[in-house]
Amino acid sequence: MFRLGPDLALVSTVDFFTPIVDDPVTFGAIAAANALSDVYAMGGRPLTALNIACFPQTGLPLEILADILAGGAGKVAEAGALVVGGHTVADEEIKYGLAVTGVVHPGRVLRNRGVRPGDRLILTKPLGTGIVTTAAKHDRAGAAALAAAIASMTALNARAAEVMASYDVHACTDVTGFGLCGHAYEMAEASGVTLRLEAAALPLLPDARELAGRGELTGGCRRNRSYLADKLEIAAGLPADLVEVALDPQTSGGLLIAVAPAYAARLLDDLQAAGVEAAAIVAEAERAGARAVVLA
């Protein structure tokens, strides 16, 4: 955060990655929604964006790059922001994303710390994008499952951010590459609490569990499991496929919102009424225990 005055501050973020879907316009939209999400997670409103793109000098028509940029520009416009420039470099592997600047009231900046014992945590998007898109690369994902994943990844977190702005939210983060368990750990560790995730309550993309059970896992999922080995307690008897979904790296995932228990049900109702239909209460904060996160 960079404070400009008593009532105005800037927040800035940057994110870009390689294609996870074949259609270039869709890839551009997903990458842009993912980059914009960090501003929403901080309680901010996106203002401007700069394109960041890598593209081969030979072998692919420039129309593909134009389509990627068009997909990103459309999503930025949907967010009410403007693309004001950018930079492209030659690279053998396509990459695209945005550097985003937003505005926020300095006293209302949300961070991934500040969770209090008793808080409930609401997740606003379903899990499983890494599993489904990995299966799609192997031609093993059904059309409906892939369509649901794309719809989730291209959806902005704007409505969720707008709704939660009316509540005294204690902490917020967006769920991306570290998966739900990894980002929950970051929140718990920074807040000095333990987060108990309720596996049965997790919102899931269609076929995510089935595909996980068939081994359609990303390298990031395995890295998340390794990183969390001494930080995450997994209850005995939990189905292995459900655990994998909880560890699955997300692209343009939902917001994870911590709020006092007295307001959790009302916030959930308001989110769902606003069209954030997958939103669910997925965790409760407890006083710090032996592990920062418990998946039960």
Kindly report how far apart the N and C termini lie: 36 Å
Number of alpha- plus pi-helical segments: 10
**Mean pLDDT value:** 97
Question: Helix- and strand-based class?
Answer: alpha+beta
CATH topology-level name of the largest domain: Phosphoribosyl-aminoimidazole Synthetase, Chain A, domain 2
Q: Give the H and E element order.
A: EEHEHEEEHHHEHEHHEHEHEE
Sheet of most strands: 7 strands, mixed
Rg for CA atoms = 19 Å
Strand order of the largest sheet: 7-10-6-11-8-12-9
**Helix proportion range:** 25-40%
Number of domains: 2
The first-level CATH class of the largest domain is given as Alpha Beta
Instruction: Give the strand content.
Output: 25-35%
CATH architecture of the largest domain: Alpha-Beta Complex
Give a nutshell description of this structure.
The chain is α+β, with helices and mostly antiparallel strands and 296 residues long. It has ten helices and twelve strands. It is globular, with a radius of gyration of 19 Å.
3D structure, described in words:
By secondary structure, the protein is α+β, with helices and mostly antiparallel strands. A hairpin with a 2-residue loop joins strand 1 and strand 2. The strands form two sheets. It has a seven-stranded mixed β-sheet, with helices on both faces. It has a five-stranded mixed β-sheet with strand order 1-2-5-3-4, with helices on one face. The model has no long low-confidence stretch (mean pLDDT 97). The protein has helices at residues 24-41, 62-78, 129-137, 143-154, 158-164, 179-191, 208-213, 219-227, 240-247, 261-273, and strands at residues 2-5, 8-17, 45-55, 82-90, 95-104, 120-123, 169-174, 193-197, 232-234, 255-259, 280-287, 293-295. The chain folds into two domains: 2-108, 2-Layer Sandwich (60s Ribosomal Protein L30, Chain: A), CATH 3.30.1330; 120-295, Alpha-Beta Complex (Phosphoribosyl-aminoimidazole Synthetase, Chain A, domain 2), CATH 3.90.650.10.
